[in-house]
Amino acid sequence: MRLALDEAKLVRDDVLEKAYPGMSKPFRDKFQRSLELQIRNLEHGDAAAEIAGSFLHDEWVDWINVRRREIKISR
User: Fold this and answer.
1) Which 3 state secondary structure label does DSSP give 3?
2) pLDDT tens per residue, range 6-52
3) pTM of this structure
4) CA 60, CA 56: separation in Å to the nearest integer?
5) Three-state DSSP class for 48?
6) Closest CA to 16 of 27, 5, 6, 7
7) 2: number of CA atoms within 13 Å, CB side?
């Protein structure tokens, strides 16, 4: 999870926006924040953070699944 968070922080917003307009905000607010909260639980035993993180992760999965065919990631 820590590696995933570190990698997520490296992705520039303009790259996310190029892949799909409007993608940077949900990526940061849902995916990246969910990792931060879940890591907080693992490091500090914060069950409320785990619940909030799981909720955000589920929101991210729902968001990305609806748009997955429209998202264009350059290689």
Assistant:
1) helix
2) 999 999 999 999 999 999 999 999 999 999 999 999 999 999 999 99
3) 0.93
4) 6
5) helix
6) 27
7) 4
Nearest partner of 5 among 20, 27, 23, 21, judged by Cα: 27
Listed residue (12, 13, 4, 58) closest to 32, CA to CA: 4
Token duo for residue 65: 């699944």
Token digits of residue 16: 């996310």
Rg (CA), the chain: 13
The answer to whether residue 75 scores a pLDDT higher than 80 is no
> For residues 23 and 75, is the Cβ–Cβ distance under 8 A?
no
Question: Which band of pLDDT confidence, cut at 50, 70 and 90, is reported for residue 74?
Answer: confident
Residue 39's alpha-carbon distances to 7, 29, 49, 69, in angstroms, are 14, 15, 9, 30
Residue 22 token pair: 């409007």
